[in-house]
């Protein structure tokens, strides 16, 4: 299609939203922009105002499109942020549930803390009691060991005393047998004396001598004071007589048996007196037991009586 002279070509016209716009640097024709579009030396001055308006509208539209794109971008970003926020909200809700559970757990533990404190105090108290009981048991064990040791010592002493008593019993039995033998020997000696008489000094003589009758003894008792010098002279005469032995063998044996019996019976009596004291007072020493035995033996034979103050 041939263009009319004075009209701009299609290359110089841009269609924007169905509206033809004259490009910059092209000359519009008179038929396109109306009869008022007249070209002069400065160009198409009559159509500059609508073009500027259209350009302004295009700029506004472009700006609106940019704003729309920005709005769409911001909306997509907001959607993404919203998704993130929803995810964060869900995560926070989960954390909230976890914190709630932890809070409940802590609350339960705090409620149980009082019971734990009470139990802890009870445990401490019971531990102290257990320690005290262990100390008391240790002291009791030491006391029992000491008592067992004392009992063992006493048992050993009792065994020694029993063995001593058994020995003393055997000695006493032997002494009784010896005493019986001595009595038999004395009886045999008296029988074998064949008329031996007792002298005034208590000795026996095998030679026949003058005996003292009962009447003479009574007479001597009645006149004891008168006959004392005579008796002394007679005793002197008898002792000075070489025919009379000083002491018979029977008397010597009797004295020896008596001394032996005394030496053996005296320790036996002392031990017999010591045994009850030892059983009644097991903590006494040997010296204290001997003094106690001596006191118990001598006590029946002496007494102290307080009469009063001496005269002034």
Automatic annotation (TrEMBL):
The KASH5-like coiled-coil domain sits at 55-188
| Coiled coil start-end | 54-192
Gene Ontology CC terms: chromosome, telomeric region; lateral element; meiotic nuclear membrane microtubule tethering complex; meiotic spindle pole; nuclear outer membrane
Q: Name one GO molecular function term.
A: dynein complex binding
Q: List the Pfam families hit by this protein, alphabetically.
A: KASH_CCD
List this protein's GO terms for biological process.
actin filament organization; chromosome localization to nuclear envelope involved in homologous chromosome segregation; homologous chromosome pairing at meiosis; spindle assembly; spindle localization; telomere localization
Keywords on record: Coiled coil
PANTHER family for the chain: PROTEIN KASH5
The identity of this protein, by name, is KASH5-like coiled-coil domain-containing protein
Question: Which species is this UniProt entry from?
Answer: Aldrovandia affinis
